[in-house]
Structures are given as C-alpha cells and as structure tokens.
C-alpha cells in the first residue's frame, strides 16, 4: 500500500469548509473561570428553551453518585469553589475524581448539577452576576451556531474540565459503560445516494445497531478512526474502547456520497449526512461528513468523522 496515516488524513480536504467551532472554543477559553461558568449557564439555559437533553439514566448517574453526594453536602461557598476548580482544571482530589469520568459520565454529572442548581440544592450563578463584554461576545458567537454545533461546544467545555492524571489508571476505564437505551431502533438497511460499497454501508449499519464488534471487523489491523477535532485513534483495541465509550446510541443517517477507485484498487469515499446523539435524540441533528480510505481488500484503513460547517456542505462532495 502506498498510503500512510498522514496521507490518509488529507483525502477530500479540498472539499471541506472550515468549521466555526474551534474559533468559538478558543474565544471561550480566553474567559476567566467565573465567566466560563456563567457563560455555560446562559448558553445551556437559553438552549434549553428549544432543546433539552434527555434525562440521564439511573445506571449512568450511579457512576457519578459518590461525587454528587459530596457536592450536595458542601456549603454554598464550597460548591462554588468546587465548580471553579473543575473549570480551571485545578489539581484537587475532587477535580481528579471528575477527571476519571468517561465523557458521558461527565455530561451526566453536569446535567444533574444543573438540575440541582435549578432546585437551589447547589449554589446557582449569583443573582447579581453581571455579564462581562467577553461573556456577551462568546454568547453571541454561540447563538450564531446551529444546534448541532452548539451542543458540540457545550460538550467540549464539559469534557475539558477537571484534572486528568496522565499517570494513574482511571478506575472507570475498566468499569462497564452503561448503554444508552434506544427508544426506537436506528435503521440498519440504509440507502445512500452514490454509495454501493458494502464496507461503508456495513459500517453505518453496525454503529446503528451498537454492534461495535461488527464495526471493528471492517478495519485493517492498523486501521484508524479520527473523531471530529481530534487526533486519529489507531488500532482495534483503542478503537473498540473509544466506540464502547462514545459511539453508543448514535443514529447515523448518511444521505449521499462519492466513491473513487484508485489505480491500486484502494478506494476513497466521502459520505455526508446527519447524526443524532442519544443526549438530544431527534431534537438535534448534526451535519456530519465521513471520509473513508479502504484498502484493495475493502477494509477500512482510515475514516475521519467531520462536523460540517453548514447544511449546504452536505451537498459539497466535489472539490471547491
Ligand atoms: C449547569 C451548567 C449549565 C452551568 C455551569 O456553570 C457549567 C456547566 C458545564 C453546566 C452544564 C452543562 C451541561 C449539562 C451540558 C450538557 C451538554 C451535552 C449533553 C452535550 C452533548 C453533546 C453530544 C454531542 C455533540 C455528540 C456528538 C457525537 C458525534 C458527532 C459522533 C460521531 C461519531 C460517528 C458519527 C462515527 O461514525 C464514529 C464514532 C463517532 C462517535 C466519532
């Protein structure tokens, strides 16, 4: 094979439109800790008027229960300090406990804290808090994003909080990640305009069935998956761990694609469509692109998952 991970990452990049998400996250990162917490409160409650995340399952909350109970027993001042420590990634015992959580447990933890803030059990944003110009600017930037992009910014903020110990193994790493129950099964017999390749169609079907074993079997032993705004995850063990933790309950609705066969028999394909996360279900559709590189035997050597910059980009499959 003549390609490498680096060359695979560049396929179809000439069809891509830069996403506004990294710039919005960079603006958010410039805020001080109190402004970050306030901004997230306003962005989340504003969003909640139109879209609300699904209630968190009891099984998932159990993983966060110990930390939640500790927070509930604190004084209001300590609760505020705890949230500041999370947002500033301070190296404290509680901030480390949070850092051990999986992505979905972190989201569930903040979801519950938000509910407890509304009920007055956890210290709310001070009623006399005045939005600074910085907060207003980031809020305005977030309001310009579509709902799929807004939830991506929120998710990123939550995932980046807490202190992550690079050395200590995570106790939740071995704990079984509870499944997201599906209210309706996602379609596994898919028709994607312009795509007949069975590997690619089977990839979508496997993820829609939460069948990660079947999805993994489609990859080469050195295959890689690159999630949005992240580095590639390489090799079946790492991909399996990632999928079990982050790809559950997704509804993949690929719509159209293009396929090009290269002289050595390998293939590159770009597919665009909409993905729903179990957190928001049918209420939020994310515009997504998949860029696949298959080896001549039809195995996935590389797939990148990209957040598209606009619904128009769903149709921009050819170089710009
Ligand atoms: C309490 C409050 C509001 C205020 C306080 O001051 C601070 C905070 C943090 C607060 C709480 C905030 C909360 C509760 C935020 C919750 C946000 C949530 C639930 C966001 C969820 C977002 C989910 C997303 C963006 C999921 C995206 C998934 C994608 C794109 C999946 C892609 C994949 C595909 C399509 C594949 O083919 C392979 C796998 C892969 C996973 C990559």
Automatic annotation (TrEMBL):
- Keyword Chloroplast present in the record's keywords: the answer is no
Where does the record place the OCP N-terminal domain?
18-169
Keyword check for Thylakoid, yes or no. yes
Residues in a coiled coil are none
Q: Where is the signal peptide?
A: none
User: By its UniProt entry, which Pfam families does this protein fall under?
Assistant: Carot_N, NTF2
Q: What PROSITE patterns does this protein map onto?
A: OCP_N
Q: Which keywords label this protein?
A: Antenna complex, Chromophore, Membrane, Phycobilisome, Thylakoid
- Family membership, please give it: Belongs to the orange carotenoid-binding protein family.
What protein does this entry describe?
Orange carotenoid-binding protein
Q: Which organism is it from?
A: Gloeocapsopsis crepidinum LEGE 06123
């Amino acid at each position: 094979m003549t390609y490498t991970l680096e060359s695979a990452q560049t396929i179809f990049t000439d069809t891509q439109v830069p996403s506004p998400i990294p710039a919005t996250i960079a603006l958010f990162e410039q805020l001080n800790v109190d402004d970050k917490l306030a901004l997230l409160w306003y962005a989340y409650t504003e969003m909640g008027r139109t879209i609300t995340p699904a209630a968190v399952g009891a099984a998932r909350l159990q993983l966060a229960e110990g930390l939640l109970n500790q927070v509930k027993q604190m004084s209001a001042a300590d609760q505020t300090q705890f949230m500041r420590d999370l947002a500033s990634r301070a190296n404290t015992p509680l901030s480390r406990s949070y850092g051990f959580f999986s992505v979905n447990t972190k989201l569930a933890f903040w979801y519950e804290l938000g509910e407890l803030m509304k009920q007055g059990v956890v210290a709310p944003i001070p009623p006399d808090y005045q939005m600074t110009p910085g907060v207003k600017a980031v809020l305005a930037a977030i309001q310009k994003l579509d709902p799929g992009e807004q939830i991506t910014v929120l998710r990123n903020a939550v995932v980046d909080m807490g202190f992550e110990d690079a050395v200590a193994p995570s106790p939740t790493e071995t704990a079984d990640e509870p499944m997201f129950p599906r209210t309706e099964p996602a379609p596994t017999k898919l028709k994607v305009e312009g795509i007949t390749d069975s590997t690619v169609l089977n990839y979508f079907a496997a993820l829609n069935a939460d069948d990660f074993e079947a999805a993994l079997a489609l990859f080469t032993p050195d295959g890689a998956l690159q999630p949005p705004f992240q580095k590639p995850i390489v090799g079946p063990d790492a991909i399996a761990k990632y999928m079990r933790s982050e790809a559950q309950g997704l509804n993949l609705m690929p719509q159209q694609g293009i396929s090009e066969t290269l002289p050595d028999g390998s293939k590159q394909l770009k597919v665009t469509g909409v993905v729903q996360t179990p957190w928001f279900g049918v209420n939020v559709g994310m515009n997504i692109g998949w860029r696949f590189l298959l080896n001549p035997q039809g195995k996935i050597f590389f797939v990148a998952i990209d957040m598209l910059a606009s619904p128009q980009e769903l149709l921009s499959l050819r170089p710009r």
